[in-house]
Amino acid sequence: EVQLVESGGGLVQPGRSLRLSCAASGFTFHDYAMHWVRQAPGKGLEWVSGISWNSGSIGYADSVKGRFTTSRENAKNSLYLQMNSLRVEDTALYYCGRGRAVTIFGSNFDIWGQGTMVTVSS
Amino acid sequence: QSGLTQPPSVSAAPGQKVTISCSGSSSNIGNNYVSWYQQLPRTAPKLLIYDNNKRPSGIPDRFSGSKSGTSATLGITGLQTGDEADYYCGAWDNSLSAVVFGGGTKLTVL
Fold first, then answer.
1. Nearest CA to CA, how far is B58 from chain A (Å)?
2. How many CB atoms lie within 10 A of CB A16?
3. CA end-to-end distance (rounded Å), chain A
4. Residue among A99, A7, A10, A1 at smallest CA distance from A53
5. End-to-end CA distance of chain B
6. Which residues are within 8 A (CB) of B23 and not within 5 positions of it... i.e. 6 or more apart?
7. pLDDT at residue A9, as a whole number
8. A2 phi, psi to nearest 5 deg
9. pLDDT in tens, B30-87
10. I want to staple A6 with a disulfide (CB 3.0 to 4.6 A). Which of A16, A95, A113, B82 is the partner?
11. Could you tell me the pLDDT band of residue B105, with boundaries at 50, 70 and 90?
């Protein structure tokens, strides 16, 4: 079964850090770009970051640029999101999604995880 | 980051047809493919349409997508109560070097 499972969310104080993970199974992980998309409570979807199949191309939304870092370990079928200097407005459900191509240049995410909740509050 | 523009809500009766619009610019919809997602309550988004008008395996042909210039449209025919959900459009934006989404449209099947 093709599956993505996120983990690592939780409650964190403003200014602190958190690392999210996304474990992939059921498909050849290194054949696809991967993305992070978040959804604040009661709000719409916001793309956070994308990484190409070989990590050669990584993109970020302006709202997280310089604070968040996306990486992947193809040997472990895993995607990561290191989140530093967290802000209250980063509070959201974070999804990882599989892109339909090897590059990040597209919005076709055909497999999604169930999401992991990040709450930034003092 | 500027996103795409969708109507906040649409409604129609069971069995009827509804369309949801998505407006952008030349930096996104005008020069890139559009995708559409369905998000049922308390679930992850699901890809409905990719590359403007293609349906992934398992998506019924009641769902269709089209694009003209800097706008795109999602069509749903034969509405069912199970279609009640939030629908989002998305596209790559060349100026932002990022994916942009619409604000979402809540579909109510009356």
1. 12
2. 11
3. 39
4. A99
5. 34
6. B4, B5, B6, B29, B70, B71
7. 97
8. -70, 125
9. 999 999 999 999 999 999 999 999 999 999 999 999 999 999 999 999 999 999 999 9
10. A113
11. very high
Q: Is A100 on the interface with B (CB under 8 A)?
A: yes
Evaluate whether B49 touches B35 at the Cβ level (below 8 Å).
yes
| Short-list A107, A86, A93, CA closest to B98 | A107
Residue in chain A lying closest to B53 (CA) = A108
Picking from B46, B51, B100, the nearest residue to A108 by CB comes out as B51
In this structure, what token pair is assigned to residue B39? 């998000």
CA distance A66 to A39: 20
Q: Is the pLDDT of residue B2 over 70?
A: no
Burial of B110 (0-12, 13-18, 19+ CB in 10 A): exposed
Q: Which residue of B has its CA nearest to A115?
A: B44
